[in-house]
Specification:
The complex is a heterodimer. Chain A is mainly alpha-helical. Chain A is built from twelve helices and no strands. The chains are: A mainly alpha, B alpha/beta.
């Protein structure tokens, strides 16, 4: 778990590692280490409008998001509108992460230019080139050149932050401002219906009831 | 209930002030007001209603809609008393009317007989201060039944051969089984264990004007939009208010209990929402603020008369914190389980409730449950198998394949009472009101870590027997985060080694009572809320009796 260390600093170190997924789940606050903007609802702004990121920054951010969760036969981060979720996050509950993004993008474009001279930015690189760059970016600092060159902490911080935001913006309930048209839920197979009735799936479909299922009562 | 809600002025000397409106405070408010007393409940957090609840994870988790906000009320943490504590969120609790019962999972296990008499059964355990409770399971049994019927618990009596005796069946059948429950049950039976339908404080049938569970899937961490989760907010608070004698006063942060020169409590001082200070006068005070905030309030109430903190002549206030131990194992299966639908847990197993410490080399026990309690985003961040790519096609493919096919086995167990494990006031760090922050000192007793290792191995065996395609367990590590805040003002008959007596009256102050997780003497096996509420029903009985006989104020 070494590559994760920097970004986990704000999260796992706060809560002490594997205390249990339920507790971790309940521990969301630390995941994005939210700034206190009491009830400044992230979904209060019209979608499709940038408020914090410049159009150019947003283009770069979206290119990274689209590599984290690519589009294939099903939607990816791009279709889910993750970049707008991130923009609003940076205005509201995650405003303190803005410098991480800004520095991270500068580093990313510098790395792109060094690796692929003539390519203006990460977003302008081919998808294969982008994958090479991200592989290097997410490699352990001691193994790659990046660590010495651009500062391992900043780069990993940036990647872990944007990764967390991307997953969040892809899969959180749309009331939180991401997951446009339930794009993320289509991918993971979560039915957007507000309520459900059992049976829910393959295993509980023909359940005979607890008493009937008990070994001493059954034919087993 | 069109009745006008009663309000009192701070200068009105009410019969009881209750600090906290959670699992214990809600029961206390309902019982004392029903018994004819005038009651004011002071709650730190807001008075939210089901209309305020949503599935918005940003609001709920990042903006702390339902829980303590570490930015406003920081905690500090250290492993051992000689260390300097660092700012780090180490406790989480509900901070709204209804307290943690608003967002909890709602597992409602009774304690068993053994939990009250562990010390006499096992003897001394080095490094721990295990003691018997001054009450037994039989003393508490009628009140467990009261919780099940009045708060609303679904379950099947007699389904677990390990259950302690009960006087009445559950008022409602168990909730429907989930796929995780079916898989877990079949595998457990195969291995000779005794799984059973989980007792849950969630309505399986409409009851007392409340709807039954609609299986929305946003349960743990969220407030229930239909009132099916039997929080104090849904079950007890409305009954308390309907008496016309109980005022619930939200946004009221109590930070001092006042005493007079006779050493009696006269009321409590609190900040309102605008941070103006008031003193609510009362003939008696019942603190139900949770196992962190209750000892903190006693320590904040130190005076020349009570230099070590109120009701702390024993020096035990804040000590013996037991957060319960936990371990997790995950399994991925071939076909869709779709366990994201519905509440979290449908099957439990208590075969390991009392383990034979002479054979295993550690003391304790616990329970296993089969569950799914993740939102999709939390799942993708934390519940993919080790080695899953962090980005790209591999990440997407794994979340796509696994989300509907995964469930987890949660192992819950005992924590031994260790004196150094404690809550105290941080000497340096202050909260946004300028009050000393809650400091947690904690290191798991090695026994508890050994036990969780053993339990997690059993969970993996069950997943094996179930035919899981992929399975893994999280490493058992020392904890530094607690949500079960137990044992920090322990009950006992000896005033030198405990804070309250079996009536929940503090040994030192005649008209001051404490009732919440802090009252517990041992940790139980991991699901404390049921016991906290049974204690509250019993304490309310005892306190009402004392008050009616004139034995509190005299």
């Amino acid at each position: 778990m070494k590559p994760d260390q920097a970004a986990r600093r704000n999260f796992l170190l706060q809560i002490g590692g594997a205390v249990g997924a339920a507790w971790v789940n309940a521990q969301w606050p630390a995941i994005l280490d939210a700034a206190q903007h009491a009830h400044q609802a992230i979904n209060s702004k019209a979608p499709g409008k940038l408020e914090v990121l410049t159009a150019e920054e947003a283009r770069q951010v979206e290119a990274v998001c689209a590599q984290i969760i690519p589009s294939d036969d099903l939607p990816g981060a791009r279709e889910a509108g993750v970049v707008y979720f991130i923009d609003r996050a940076l205005k509201t509950f995650s405003s303190e992460d803005l410098p991480t993004y800004q520095k991270g993008l500068v580093n990313l474009n510098k790395l792109t230019a060094e690796k692929y001279p003539g390519t203006k930015s990460f977003a302008d690189a081919s998808t294969e080139q982008q994958q090479v760059i991200l592989t290097e970016l997410t490699a352990e600092p001691s193994e790659g050149k990046l660590g010495r060159r651009n500062g391992p902490e900043e780069s990993t911080d940036f990647f872990q932050t944007i990764r967390t935001h991307t997953i969040f913006g892809f899969l959180a309930d749309p009331s939180a401002g991401g997951n446009r048209d339930y794009a993320g839920w289509k991918v993971v197979g979560r039915d957007p219906a507000p309520v459900f009735s059992p049976p829910y799936g393959y295993y509980d479909k023909n359940y005979p009831g607890w008493a009937a299922a008990k070994p001493e009562a059954g034919p087993k | 209930m069109n009745q006008v809600k009663v309000t009192y002025r701070p200068s009105d000397e009410v019969d009881f002030v209750i600090v906290g409106s959670g699992a214990a405070g809600g029961v206390m408010a309902k019982e004392l007001s029903t018994n004819g007393f005038r009651v004011v409940v002071l709650e730190q957090g807001p008075y939210l209603t089901p209309n305020d609840f949503s599935h918005n994870e940003i609001e709920v988790f990042n903006q702390h809609q339902l829980t303590n906000n570490p930015r406003l009320q920081p905690n500090t943490f250290r492993r051992a008393p000689q260390e300097k504590a660092k700012v780090q969120q180490s406790v989480m609790y509900g901070r709204c009317v209804g307290g943690s019962s608003v967002h909890f999972t709602a597992n409602y296990w009774r304690l068993h007989e053994i939990d009250f008499i562990e010390r006499s059964r096992v003897g001394e355990i080095p490094g721990a201060n295990l003691v018997d409770w001054p009450i037994t399971y039989n003393d508490l049994e009628p009140y467990y039944t009261k919780v099940e019927w009045e708060v609303g618990v679904s379950g099947l009596a007699g389904a677990s051969p390990f259950d302690p005796p009960r006087s009445k069946p559950y008022p409602m059948p168990p909730l429907p089984v989930k796929g995780s429950g079916v898989i877990f049950e079949r595998a457990a039976w195969k291995l000779g264990y005794h799984p059973f339908p989980a007792p849950m404080a969630i309505l399986s049938q409409p009851r007392a004007g409340r709807d039954s569970c609609v299986n929305c899937g946003f349960c743990l961490g969220f407030g229930c939009e239909v009132g099916a989760k039997s929080s104090s907010l849904a079950s007890m608070i409305p009954l308390a208010e309907a008496t016309g004698r109980c005022e619930i006063r939200p946004n009221s942060y109590v930070h001092r209990i006042e005493t007079n020169k006779n050493g009696r409590v006269t009321g409590v001082v609190y900040f309102d929402a605008k941070r103006n200070e008031h003193m609510q006068k009362a003939k008696a005070v019942v603190v139900c603020a949770n196992g962190g905030e209750t000892p903190r309030l006693l320590l904040l109430s130190a005076s020349s008369q009570f230099p070590n903190g109120l009701a702390n002549s024993s020096g035990v206030v804040g000590k013996y914190l037991m957060p319960n131990s936990a371990a997790l194992a995950y399994g991925v299966f071939d076909e869709p389980i779709n366990d994201y639908k519905g509440f979290a847990v449908s099957r439990v197993m208590h075969d390991f409730y009392e383990l034979d410490h002479t054979k295993l080399g550690f003391y304790g026990g616990g329970g296993l449950d089969a569950r799914f309690d993740m939102t999709p985003a939390a799942f993708a961040l934390f519940n993919l198998p080790p080695g899953t790519p962090k980005w790209g096609k591999g990440l997407k493919q794994t979340m796509r394949q696994n989300f509907t096919r995964t469930f987890e086995i949660f192992c819950h167990g005992t924590s031994l009472p260790v004196e150094a494990n404690s809550f105290s006031l941080d000497p340096d760090v202050k909260d946004a009101w300028g009050l000393p922050a809650l400091r947690m000192t904690f290191r798991d007793h090695p026994n508890d870590l050994k036990m969780m290792e053993w339990m997690a191995d059993r969970a993996i065996e069950i997943l094996d027997a179930a035919g899981a395609k992929t399975k893994w367990r999280t490493p058992v590590q020392e904890q530094q985060f607690a949500v079960h805040l137990l044992g920090t003002c322990r009950m006992g008959s000896d005033r030198k080694s405990s804070v309250i007596n079996s009536d929940h009256r503090t040994h030192d102050v005649r008209n001051l009572f404490l009732c919440d997780g802090s009252s517990m003497v041992t940790s139980g096996r991991g699901q404390p809320t049921m016991t906290i509420q049974a204690l509250a029903f019993r304490a309310a009985d005892r306190i009402s009796g004392l008050a009616k006989r004139g034995e509190i104020s005299s």
